[in-house]
Amino acid sequence: MTVKEIIEKLDLQCLNEVNLDTEVTGAYASDLLSDVMGNARSGQIWITMQTHKNVTAIASLKDIPAVILVRGGVPDIDMLEHAKDEDICILVSKDATFQVCGKLYALIG
Amino acid sequence: MHYTFNIERGNFTDAGQASSSVKRTLKQLGVDPANIKRTVVALFEAEINAVAHAYGGTIDVDIDGEKIVMVVADEGPGIPNLDLAMQEGWSTASAKVREMGYGAGMGLPNIKKNTDDLKIDTQVGVGTTVTMTVYLT
Predict the structure, then answer these.
(1) What mean pLDDT is predicted for residues B102-130?
(2) Do B110 and A37 touch (CB under 8 A)?
(3) Where are the domains of chain A?
(4) For chain B, which end, N or C, has fewer CB atoms within 10 Å of the first or last residue's CB respectively?
(5) Long-range residue pairs from B34-39, CB within 8 A, at least 24 positions apart, any chain
(6) pTM
(7) Are B101 and A50 inside 8 Å of each other by CB?
């Protein structure tokens, strides 16, 4: 399933429209950055409530095409700028992590 | 090839720039993606450790056809108990650092898992030098 299809199915707000046609291979949900560094795999979508620039740094290093910020998370300005520089799609859900994971698992789990 | 980067105390905003730059170089050199991944995970974690705990430092990266050697040297408090520090879940990170999602005690274990050789020289009250090697063959 592509990033674009996930945006539509989960009714996500898209703050940086890149990688829309990228095929998502799975998802990783964590707010611990070293957990993501150590365990997320490239091509996965990352679900988190962290909204600072290190999120995009890690997403870029790990080849993560898109990040879903939960509970209406607002990215820091420098995070969003960095996402544009590094081509990371930034998505926002009104739902909490549990709901986002459940919906996404039903689609691609 | 040799690259040097500076580490500034508490500057999380620019953290990851060294790893990002090294990743680009390794990609251009056609290094195997699995080795690129291991290298950037280890370097990022070491960089974050220095930003979070030390007062400043340097990163030196040497790349040749056989290996990548990364040396992260800081002036800082040092690590009083290295065995504890290597344990997953052990952390001395501040509340501020934990709020950012760091301080889970996974940094050094992640470095260990992703490198072929890891050497840590540390002196309490002076600083820590972490030398990490990834073999390409």
Answers:
(1) 96
(2) yes
(3) 3-108
(4) C
(5) B35/B68, B35/B134, B35/B136, B37/A42, B37/A62, B37/B114, B38/B114, B38/B115, B38/B134, B39/B68, B39/B70, B39/B114, B39/B134
(6) 0.94
(7) yes
